[in-house]
Amino acid sequence: MDMSETSPDSQQRLARLAFVGVIVLLVVIYLVRNVDRYKDLNTEFRYGELVEMVEPIQETVEAAMLSGNFNNLTFLDSGNAGLPAEVLASEQTHGISVIDGRIIATWMRDNSDLDNVTYILTPEVEDGDVKWSTTGTCGRKKAC
Questions:
Q1: What is the topology classification, in CATH, of domain 8-139?
Q2: For the chain, N or C: smaller number of CB within 10 Å?
Q3: Residues 61 and 101: beta-carbon distance below 8 Å
Q4: HEC profile of 17-53
Q5: What is the chain's alpha carbon radius of gyration, rounded to the nearest angstrom?
Q6: Taking all residues of the chain, what is their mean pLDDT, rounded to a whole number?
Q7: 1-10, pLDDT tens digit by residue?
Q8: Is 102 helix (H, G, I), strand (E, B) or coil?
Q9: Is 65 exposed, middle or buried, given 0-12, 13-18 or 19+ CB atoms closer than 10 A?
Q10: Contact 102, 120 (CB under 8 A)
């Protein structure tokens, strides 16, 4: 056998190695191109903690608005109408307050990428249902 010729076994090994190399390269390219998406998902997942804290307050505001007892939203403030007292954001806790029916939640001061990011929900009664609009700085962080 001539040295320039390769055996079928070595050709198969070379083909397998090339195939594995191509697969690894495709996976690396996929991960590099989508690393921001995974970062955004992680941020949104972490921020979900704050969103979950707001849900019971949101339900209380909705019930009060739909009951007809609060035609004027200025009475829907923290500490009134069954709403919890205002909590200011600190190193250990998220901040939550209700002002005129608007819920303002602030991420705790933990020096993370979400530090002091706000999640603001504004209610409006439309066709007998409460519709919520979301604002705040959470949109820029792709957290809400």
A1: Glycoprotein, Type 4 Pilin (3.30.700)
A2: N
A3: yes
A4: HHHHHHHHHHHHHHHHHHHHHHHHHHHHHHHHHHHHH
A5: 27
A6: 87
A7: 455 566 778 8
A8: strand
A9: buried
A10: yes
- Asked if residues 76 and 61 have their Cβ atoms less than 8 Å apart, the reply is yes
Q: pLDDT per residue over 17-56, tens digit each?
A: 899 999 999 998 887 776 666 666 677 788 889 999 999 9
The answer to which of 65-69, 105-109, 121-125 has the lowest mean pLDDT is 65-69
CA–CA dist 18, 143 (Å, integer): 41
Burial of 140 (0-12, 13-18, 19+ CB in 10 A): exposed
Amino acid identity, position 77: D
Instruction: Indicate yes or no: pTM above 0.90.
Output: no
